Amino acid sequence: MSDLKVEDLSSSLPTPEVWGSFKVLGVEKTRLELFGWVLGKASEVERVEVLAGNAVIASTALEVPRDDIAELHPGRGSAATCGFRVVIEAKGKGHSEIELRAVLEDETSVRMGVVRVFAPARRWDLFRR
Question: Which member of 42, 76, 83, 109 has the lowest number of beta carbons within 10 Å of its beta carbon?
């Protein structure tokens, strides 16, 4: 299969509820690696979820050290580990929109942004009769 292609990344950050940033760290064949950080303004962030359509396809805790963010927010212990890294794998083909959202401690979801990707057809799909 050809490599997955990132067509667009659109961030909604910051929002009234959270600060943060994310990016595509890499693409390898059908795998997409996302990396970033998110910090709640008035409430702690419990996890980051990745959705395709309305289905959660991945979820990760905030565990990646972020000394740079901790320096900007010295009174917030959670700022030291507000980073995340998640790897997802394309299972289908065609265009998809992947949404990232922060889930706060009260289970409120905050949209962080979207990544639009294209997964080319597998070689054997092209020649199937």
Answer: 42
User: 5-123 falls under which CATH superfamily?
Assistant: Immunoglobulins (2.60.40.10)
d(CA 96, CA 94): 7
Alpha-carbon distance of 53 to 56, in angstroms, equals 8
Q: How far apart (Å, rounded) are the C-alpha atoms in residues 65 and 7?
A: 29
Q: How far is CA 1 from CA 8, 41, 66, 72, in A?
A: 21, 42, 35, 43
Q: Is the pLDDT of residue 127 over 80?
A: no
The tokens describing 49, both together, are: 């979820």
**pLDDT recorded at residue 122:** 57
Give the pLDDT of residue 42. Answer: 93
How much is the average pLDDT of 58-78? 96
